[in-house]
């Protein structure tokens, strides 16, 4: 019970730190992201500097603290995907994510962070993102049930 509380508090602190970093760096403003993606127009390299700064902080910490760990700090084991191949679902999901990011100028983390600013368009974005996730989960569940029925019939 106590370790679960500690795990949740660490998760909360990590999320808050991430959100503050996104706000301080200006990456919750879709104009900054769209400016970075506009390489043929008025390109704004500030996002590259934000990512580079994050790598400069994370890379040494990874090599010293994380790389050699046999298990995560707050869990008994790592949970990695068992899927090893690139399939149509992965490609479609990646394309939809990229298109959404390019059109809206924001990705899920900064969108959730920007909810604290009370911007209605971010609320619409996050609600749409949650709706899309639920539809995807329902679709996947339906496909898995259909595949199970097909296997059982043979």
What does this structure look like?
The structure is a single chain. The protein is built from six helices and no strands. The termini are far apart. Helix content is 72%, strand content 0%. It has one domain. It has 154 residues and is mainly alpha-helical.
Spell out the blueprint of helices and strands.
Layout: H1 2-25, H2 30-37, H3 46-66, H4 88-104, H5 108-114, H6 120-153
Helix pairs in contact: 1-5, 5-6
Distance between the termini: 46 Å
Largest sheet descriptor = none
* Tally of separate domains: 1
Oligomer: single chain
The overall average pLDDT, rounded, is: 85
Residue stretches low in confidence (pLDDT < 50, at least 5 long) are none
Helix content: over 70%
Query: By helix and strand content, what is the structural category?
Result: mainly alpha
SSE ordering: HHHHHH
Record field, number of beta strands: 0
Using only C-alpha atoms, the radius of gyration works out to 19 Å
Shape: globular
Number of helices: 6
β-sheet strand percentage: under 5%
